[in-house]
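Pair request: fold both.
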Amino acid sequence: MSANPHDHAAEEAHSGPIKNPKQLLVAVFFSFVVPIFAIIGLVYYVVSANKPAGANSGESMLLGGMTESDQKKAVAERIQKVGFVEIRDANRELKSGEEVFKAQCTACHTAGVAGAPKFGDAAAWAPRIKNPFETLLNSALHGKGAMGAQGGGDFEDLEIARAVVYMANAGGGKFPEPAKPGAAAAPAEGASAAVASAAPAEAASAPAAAASK
């Protein structure tokens, strides 16, 4: 006589889906190992998204998102002295007044903002060009009113002076453009050298002329 089919079905229902040790190992793998890899991948993704480009992930985590070179640069900037000397090329070609104007002055003087006399506006420049050029240059170099000091920046004082002349003359002024200090001295030095070289020749020709008489 065969076993009761109802009892056999009840036994299968209580036994569960795992039938052998192999199925148990597979279930354990998917229950524990796969989630662990998923967590590791998520952490790596978060760290990679927040680190600086090109930085090593471990280095980035240890230095708070900064590379070692970035940290050294930041420290050097904090401990550097307040004042420093900038060495410029003394032989570079000086800019013209128009070039300096376009680079440094046009923001205010082209539109005439912040009380600046508008470029080419004779009425705005009339009371200013009545002053000596030195007064205009001093105001430009050291600042006046809303205009900050223009000296000590990217351009030499002579270049700022050329820009002042360029603007003032566009407004009706007649100021000569400042020349480089060595430029005026060069022709004079050449002339004095020519005179000095001519003197011995004249002295040598004098006895010859006397002897011929």
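--- second member of the pair ---
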Amino acid sequence: MIMKRTLNGWHVFGIFAGCFAVIIGVNLTLAFQAVSTFPGLVTKNSYVSSQRFDADRAAQNALAWDVSAEIANQVLTLRVLDRDGVAFEPAEVKATLGRATHVAEDVTPAFIWDGTALVADVDVPAGYWTLWLNMTAEDGTEFRRRIPITAR
């Protein structure tokens, strides 16, 4: 025996309420995941940083350094060339190699000058990486760069 039921207002309300509950639940889950995996701020006060940006950029450009980086066979190679195209070792090098989306795999490379480039052993899986560089020239000028790298 087949029973027929009619679709009334309460059924329609239940369907709509269920659909909205699913949508709100998914949105809350995604929002929580986004906030909980946020790696943090690049700068504490963007207004103050913006006041020095042009002067910092001009000082870095005046150095005329050509910087490149690559990862091959678990070795990170950082080449720094002066305005004449000659490789040199900056006075100070601080770097962080990590993923752009999270800080769980961040590493601090221990660079060694081999006469032509700075090299560091890094145990990182293949994929897209970002190298954040903070270098200092002999005259104290700071040089900062963010270099995207593909490890193969």
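Observation on the second member. The mean pLDDT is 92.
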